[in-house]
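W.,

You were right to be curious about this one. When I first looked at the sequence I had no strong expectations either way, so I just let the prediction run and decided to look at it fresh. Below is the sequence, 372 residues in total, followed by the output.
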Amino acid sequence: MSVLQQTWKLALVACLASAFSLAATAMAQDEKTDAKADEKKEGGEDKNIYELPKDADAAALIKFIEGLQNHRVNSREEFEAHREKAGPAIRQAAAKVMELEKGNKKSEHYRKAQFLLLVARLGELRTGDDKVIREIIGETKEYLASKEADEFEPNDAAIARAVAQQLEFSGKTDLAKEALTAFSDVLAKAAEKNEDLKPIVESMAGTLRRMNLLGNEIEIKGKLVDGSDFDWKAYSKGKVVLVDFWATWCGPCIGELPNVKKNYEKYHAKGFEIVGISLDTDRKKLEAFLEKEGTKWAQLFEDEAGWKHPVAVHYGISGIPTVILVDQQGKVVSLNARGPELGKLLEKLLGSSDSTDEPKTEEKTATAEASK
């Protein structure tokens, strides 16, 4: 697994899971059966594990946070209750550590608390207003900037990636672009001295490139699955084209395939095309799948490339299916044309599937603007 893939995994599993389900890891841990006993006061009374220890130093507060993260729960109800209480307690404890250690911001305790606070605040990216989100972006940038190039660990880049991805997944594209720009500036400087960071910087640049596609042209080039060159200009001229990043091993991709096929049959005669960009590594398996499914559209493929397919790298593809819809003028009108949304967009761009009338120019323009 590449450094970049490790970081994506850390970002999506470690960071996001911690933010939205602070007890998720604890539910899976095989702790000693007497762990519950440690949470009892003398006399058998339950103690409040969410209450900050009085007069605690930085080390004790970090231990308190780790205790909450590793707390064992036995039911869904306990899980929900713990998640609700642990988040505020962790944020409060981390902030206290940073206050105690503010005279030495490079101390191990300060940096650990700073990181834990960022992880705990990831959930606010979905619910917070622009001011709160920009505050979190600023705190993340400050955390990254406090590191020397040789001090970066995988989780440092992962937290930056997690912030940007959560904003993107929440539909807050402009704020996601702000975050990526801010983090890329810091990481790019560090990457000059730390080779391990270069794939992360390149991925962020690709993601920014993809986010800026709306209203602009997309560049597609490469080899078809039969080894011949693909001519994007000729293939897409005057057509509405769905660019589909996918793989045969991707469950959600296969789940979306019937919808794609249905719309292809409905709108192909009216000028709808598809170009698949397969992130598979095995040509024979891909060819067998395409033959079995009877797909009729172009498929780009690079032997053993997988996630490193040049077009996927160029546009920072880190999750599939990723689908991009291009109109007749060659402009991108949607970065998420899946499910019912695909059919709605095609009807606006090409007219009803049971009609051969061309859509009006005004309708095409309005569709592009509405998708932004």
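Here's what jumped out at me. Confidence is low (pLDDT under 50) at residues 1-45, 356-372. And, maybe more interesting for your project: Residues 3-211 form one domain.

Coffee later to discuss?

I.
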